[in-house]
Design goal:
about 170 residues; single chain; 2 strands; two-stranded antiparallel sheet
Length: about 170
């Protein structure tokens, strides 16, 4: 978009823009009262004239933590990660042979028992069966276990895998 108004600011425009800023009028409303000036032009004028709020200095507002608090936080984080590793190990050990275990796992409540996909083709699937895709290596196959009542397409295990929050660890 090209500049609609490339002329320098007149003294009258400068005075009006300064008064509007002092009155607390927004840049959009100020631009509406200054014919040919856009909101961005008004903001730019205010910044050049030093009328806009200064940016806070980096680090302002941050409180320094005591060494004891920092050590407590580090210890809590180590324990949290240790618990996650134990949960992941228990989850992987509980999976039956051949079950698809996700590479990335986020612990969120109790996981349904892992299932071994039945390897059905798309033509063999019915509406009441899980449509979680199988391996990418061969022909396209799908889980095929009974669909969970709370999910339109997946069994309870694949629904749990597919609806978790951001993963907390990697395999």
């Amino acid at each position: 978009m090209t500049n609609q108004h490339q002329n320098p600011w007149t003294e009258e425009e400068k005075k009006l823009a300064t008064e509007l800023k002092a009155a607390g009028v927004s840049a959009s409303q100020s631009a509406a009262q200054l014919p040919g000036r856009t909101r961005n032009a008004v903001i730019g004028f205010w910044q050049r004239e030093g009328l806009s709020s200064p940016r806070p200095e980096p680090g302002l507002g941050k409180t320094k933590r005591s060494p004891e608090e920092l050590e407590f936080r580090r210890q809590a984080a180590r324990e949290y990660r240790r618990n996650l590793r134990q949960q992941k190990k228990a989850f992987i050990e509980s999976a039956p042979d051949g079950a698809a275990v996700p590479r990335r796992i986020a612990y969120r409540g109790e996981c349904p028992p892992p299932v071994v996909p039945l390897g059905l083709s798309l033509l063999e699937l019915s509406d009441s069966q899980c449509k979680w895709p199988g391996d990418d290596a061969g022909p396209y196959t799908f889980c095929g276990h009974p669909r969970d009542a709370a999910s339109p397409a997946y069994c309870s295990y694949h629904r749990w895998i597919g609806t978790k929050p951001t993963p907390m660890w990697r395999a």
